[in-house]
Amino acid sequence: MAYYHSVTLDTNKCKGCTKCIQHCPTEAIRIRGGKAKIIKDRCIDCGECIRVCKSRAKLALTDSFDVLNNFEYNIALPAPALYGQFGADITTDKVLSGLLEIGFDDVFEVARAAEYISAATREMIVENKLPKPAISSACPAVVRLITVRFPSLIDNIVPLLEPMELAARMARDEAKKKTGLSDDKIGVFFITPCPAKMTSVKASITVGDTAVSGAISVNDVYVKLLNVLKNVKPRGIACAGFEGISWARRGGESYGTGLNNYIVVDGTENVIKILSAIEDEKLRDIDFAELAACSMGCVGGALNVTNPYVCVSNIKNIAENTPQSTPVENININNMCFDKEIVPSTAMNFDNDLSKAVEIMEKIEKLYTTMPQLDCGSCGAPSCRALAEDIVRGYAKKYDCLFLRNQHTKEITLKLNEIVTKRKDGKKLSQEEIKLYQQLTDELFEFEQEQQSGYDFNLNEMERY
User: Quick check: 4 and 140 in contact, CB under 8 A?
Assistant: First the structure.
């Protein structure tokens, strides 16, 4: 499967403001030539850059409604977060019925599949089949983050499918029985609140052949649903209960498992801190860790419309007015597990040869000690250490750092001033001083020219690491 990213950049809108590099959890963005540059191997499609970009230069690539024309029978898989986009008086049944009004032939609630995942997670933890703490696999951005920055924690990931994928498989089976159509004539589309889910559909690191045909953003569906929800007649098709719907907000997944000893963390910065603590074996007494890249959980996804705080309130009211879920019975965990083994990403590796990697690391550390260590981002890298790495790799220059550049210019200028002052005072310059003066003026000229000329390497080369 080709490597795919749902987060992309509109260079025409990018102003090189450095906002995105300050918030990227994997340091996957640089500012080069006055524009942002995404290092693809490091990007986990969390959507954080989309959220913080005031120029709206970061975009999420999702499917349009036109893709429904490619299939005879189309099924919508609404994420639980979709329910919270509307007022608390809009029931899940109204939303599901509305999806049928705007072009889908059938719906299958991802919230119901989530209830199966919750039950399976509980069973695996109670039977001590997972290391502690077991880390939820529901957020694909977190799973990718682990492969990039915390590969030692891969075994802690609960090896269960995302609810989206399980829902798609269950929906396909039902549709084939109902319609008699073959797989290639059935389209199954996830209504996604975040770009990471789109990436998971196109290039999953846990699933071989996905049952999901594509992903349509919540904001695209929202517009169409608004036009029909006021007059739509509920069809009584909702089946997910309180537990499944609650997955939309932080803590909902943990609640659904019925466990007591768990931790809930949202937002990439907080997730990174917790993963670091788990890696340092500081949370071995915790059974389960629910980690979400988006603040407040899926309701905070970059492709949602409604303010996440309002959305949480809506979900709470909807869930509390929904009956408890029908107990999940006869779970076959083997049919709910990953299709393939998660492998660590090599994006952060310095070299496959250990001795060379150590040598590169030593060069980076030595260079880093000469830097101001302010992490201001004015060089186009997210931190001084990241700049040091870029320099050693050949993707940046030492004097991209404004502080080092100004310091270097000042040193040359002071030396030149000493010689000029001596000459003004009528003192005769030695041959060595004349030679030094020429060298310094040449160096200053070349230095300024170098800074103005920009980069002599191909920016696309950065995508190799």
Answer: no
In the DSSP assignment, the letter for residue 241 is -
pLDDT tens string 89-99: 888 999 999 99
Indicate the pTM of the whole model.
0.85
Per-residue pLDDT, averaged over 123-138, amounts to: 94
d(CA 346, CA 381): 20
Segment 448-465, tens digit of pLDDT:
666 555 544 444 544 544
Domains in the chain, CATH or no CATH each: 7-60 (3.30.70.20), 65-336 (no CATH), 354-456 (no CATH)
Among the listed residues 139, 117, 268, 264, the one whose alpha carbon sits nearest the alpha carbon of residue 196: 139
User: 395 and 462 in contact (C-beta within 8 Å)?
Assistant: yes
Q: Do 320 and 241 touch, CB atoms closer than 8 A?
A: no
Q: Rounded to whole angstroms, how far apart are CA atoms 298 and 223?
A: 19
Query: For residue 322, which of 107, 93, 166 has the smallest C-alpha distance?
Result: 93
Token pair, residue 444, equals 């200053």
Query: Rounded CA gap, 107 and 368, in Å?
Result: 55
DSSP string, 362-376: HHHHHHHTTS-----
Q: Distance between CA 320 and CA 302 in Å, rounded? A: 26
Reduced to 3 states, what is the DSSP secondary structure of residue 78?
A: strand
Contact 46, 25 (CB under 8 A): yes
Q: What is the DSSP letter of 58?
A: E
Handedness of CA 68, 74, 77, 81 (dihedral sign): positive
Distance of CA 128 to the CA centre of its chain: 30
DSSP-derived pairing of the beta strands 35-38 and 29-32:
antiparallel
CA distance 395 to 383: 14
